[in-house]
């Protein structure tokens, strides 16, 4: 594992009964990069994410995070390594009975039970501010927030423990284009400010062009290619061609070019 790799996956196999989802997945995620993961529906993007963060037990293979083998890990190692990552789940997964401040305090309480409530409130307030949410959001509940605000609140909780690594499951799904652009800008800003590595499942072609350093394509039960979007558009595989060179892919490419030239 090279020093620059924060995640290294080798020969990963996942199956459910007779359904093989992954059959020899290999992938390296480099420290400091934003890596996008794409693939058709049901190709196993979420199963891959769940395998990395220990919510899915693979059949075979190796997953190293920060140099620690995650498969077959003991609960203590798992707890020690998971302290270094934050996860934004697709529906943000905020606790509906807790306000946003209390949600952000959940991981803080788990890892720092000795800290007093007023200090936890301050830290939570700081994390909420980092995601550009107004201060009064802290006392609101998930049901009182817009879709974009929920994503930001989920991000605030994912940042609670000052992670090195951020896992995002479709951070812009369900958002209008302006809110999606704002979330992309926030992810870029957080990466710069905190030196994060970001592993992001997305279907959002604009996000792939605008913020991902590299994109991994999951198809045929494997990671078929990992490269810049520009290079992937030239890749000779039927799904990759359809994905990047179809009408939506071309529109995203044109919009990216227009942004670059300021048109
Ligand atoms: N706990 C489970 N039990 C049985 N099958 C599962 C389980 N979790 C996932 N699968 C199956 O594994 C396959 C991959 O699912 P996964 O959710 O990873 O797809 P995905 O690529 O994230 O899809 P989408 O883009 O539609 O969210 C699917 O066929 C799904 O039905």
TrEMBL record:
It comes from the Bacteria. Keywords: ATP-binding, Nucleotide-binding, Transport. Residues 7-245 form the ABC transporter domain. SMART domains: AAA. InterPro entries: AAA+_ATPase, ABC_transporter-like_ATP-bd, ABC_transporter-like_CS, P-loop_NTPase. PANTHER family: PROTEIN TRIGALACTOSYLDIACYLGLYCEROL 3, CHLOROPLASTIC (PTHR43023:SF3). This is ABC transporter related protein. GO terms for molecular function: ATP binding; ATP hydrolysis activity.
């Amino acid at each position: 594992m090279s020093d620059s790799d924060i995640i290294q996956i080798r020969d990963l196999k996942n199956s459910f009964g007779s359904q093989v989802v992954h059959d020899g997945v290999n992938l390296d995620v480099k420290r400091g990069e934003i890596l996008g993961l794409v693939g058709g529906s049901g190709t196993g993007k979420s199963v891959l994410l769940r395998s990395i963060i220990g919510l899915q037990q693979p059949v075979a293979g190796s997953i190293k995070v920060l140099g620690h083998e995650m498969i077959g890990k003991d609960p203590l190692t798992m707890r020690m390594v998971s302290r270094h990552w934050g996860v934004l789940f697709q529906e943000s997964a905020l606790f509906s009975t807790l306000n946003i401040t209390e949600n952000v305090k959940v991981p803080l309480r788990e890892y720092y039970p000795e800290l007093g409530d007023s200090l936890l409130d301050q830290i939570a307030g700081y994390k909420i501010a980092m995601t550009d949410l107004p201060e009064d959001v802290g006392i609101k509940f998930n049901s009182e927030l817009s879709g974009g605000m929920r994503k930001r609140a989920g991000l605030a909780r994912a940042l609670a423990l000052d992670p090195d690594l951020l896992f995002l499951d479709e951070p812009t799904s369900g958002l209008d284009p302006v809110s999606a652009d704002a979330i992309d800008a926030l992810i870029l800003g957080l990466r710069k400010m905190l030196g994060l590595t970001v592993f992001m499942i997305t279907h959002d072609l604009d996000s792939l062009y605008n913020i991902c350093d590299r994109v991994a394509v999951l198809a045929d039960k494997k990671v078929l290619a990992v490269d810049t979007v520009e290079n992937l558009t030239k890749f000779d595989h039927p799904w990759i061609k359809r994905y990047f060179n179809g009408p939506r892919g071309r529109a995203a490419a044109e919009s990216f070019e227009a942004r670059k030239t300021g048109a």
